[in-house]
């Protein structure tokens, strides 16, 4: 099957956010579909961002040559390691280029993503439909057909449009973003062993000290340790400020990752909290969660009737 698509032409009505998914099996299909769409958008003078995994980035750049010097290239393996920070990156590009109908390629899930990362990337894809609802941007999302079936099925649910060989087709499986997010709220696995600390406002310094000693004992690099302490500090402070004045901190590690989890009685009324860049002049908050996403390799959040769980993952090295 030939998988190629096109960005809307200059004669198409400018209205809703365009969020197609493109499935590909080979490099040739990738170059035809994604490369053809990038080439067409650039030829129309649209600002183009290609945020895809490094090996696909090189493939696209080699395929397009030097004819499109204004295309912005971003390695999604680095910029989107934590799926929770992808949205603000794409929105920043769209905001800087709002007058030009920005065209973005965003490949958020690749072979090798963990199931937890893929789940949070699926949540990101669903939330894109809310965050960009009033934008005239296009975000084309390639998915390799070698991905697990459950990931491909979710791609049908999170994208309103399927990119075919010659046109766009409505996705019959497209699902309300809030429902997709609820489905992503699967129970988090319990650790085998964890350090547990119950804290209130007067215990914030103790919580930070415990997290610092834990990172030092794990031989976390000094640079990463600074990020770790900032992220944990934001998490416990958020529990005190927004989670009923107290919470529980749990710390444990896997082979190469430190994990910190806070539990409190807080709520998360807006699923976009922490994923959009916060307004520095707004009193609505969200800056702490946004900072956690920027610092950590993965952030998992679960809201329920009993409260809020925030789980931070950071590699030791």
Considering the chains and any ligands shown, give keywords for the structure.
38% helix, 317 residues, Rossmann fold, 2 domains, alpha/beta, elongated, seven-stranded mixed beta sheet
Could you outline the blueprint of secondary structure elements for this entry?
Layout: E1 20-24, H1 27-43, E2 48-52, H2 54-64, E3 72-75, H3 76-79, H4 86-96, E4 103-106, H5 115-131, E5 138-144, H6 149-158, E6 161-163, E7 168-170, H7 177-184, E8 195-200, H8 204-217, H9 222-242, E9 246-253, E10 257-264, H10 287-295, E11 298-304, E12 307-315
Parallel strand pairs: 1-5, 1-6, 2-3, 2-4, 4-5
Antiparallel strand pairs: 6-7, 8-9, 9-10, 10-12, 11-12
Helix pairs in contact: 1-2, 5-6, 5-7, 8-9, 9-10
């Amino acid at each position: 099957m030939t998988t190629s698509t096109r960005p809307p032409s200059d004669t198409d009505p400018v209205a809703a956010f365009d969020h197609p998914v493109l499935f590909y099996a080979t490099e040739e299909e990738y170059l035809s579909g994604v490369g053809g769409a990038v080439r067409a958008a650039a030829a129309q003078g649209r600002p183009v961002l290609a945020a895809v995994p490094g090996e696909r980035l090189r493939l696209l750049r080699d395929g397009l040559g030097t004819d499109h010097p204004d295309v912005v290239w971003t390695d999604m393996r680095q910029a989107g390691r934590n799926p929770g920070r992808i949205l603000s990156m794409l929105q920043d590009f769209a905001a800087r280029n709002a007058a030009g109908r920005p065209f973005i390629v965003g490949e958020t899930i690749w072979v090798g993503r963990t199931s937890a990362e893929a789940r949070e990337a699926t949540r990101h894809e669903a939330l894109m439909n809310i965050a960009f609802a009033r934008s005239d941007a296009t975000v084309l999302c390639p998915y390799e057909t070698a991905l697990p079936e459950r990931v491909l099925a979710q791609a049908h649910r999170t994208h309103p449009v399927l990119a075919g060989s010659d046109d766009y087709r409505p996705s019959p499986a497209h699902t309300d973003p809030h429902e997709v997010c609820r489905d992503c709220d699967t129970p988090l696995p319990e650790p085998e062993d964890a350090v547990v600390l119950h804290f209130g406002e007067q215990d914030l310094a103790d919580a930070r000290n415990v997290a610092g000693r834990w990172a030092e004992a794990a031989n976390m690099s000094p640079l990463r340790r600074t990020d770790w302490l900032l992220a944990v500090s934001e998490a416990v402070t958020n529990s005190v400020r927004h989670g009923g004045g107290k919470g529980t901190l749990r710390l444990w590690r896997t082979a190469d990752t430190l994990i910190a989890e806070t539990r409190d009685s807080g709520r998360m009324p807006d699923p976009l909290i922490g994923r959009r860049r916060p307004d520095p002049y707004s009193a609505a908050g969200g800056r702490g969660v946004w900072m956690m996403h920027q610092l950590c390799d993965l952030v998992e959040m679960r809201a329920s009737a009993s409260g809020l769980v925030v789980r931070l993952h950071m590699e030791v090295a």
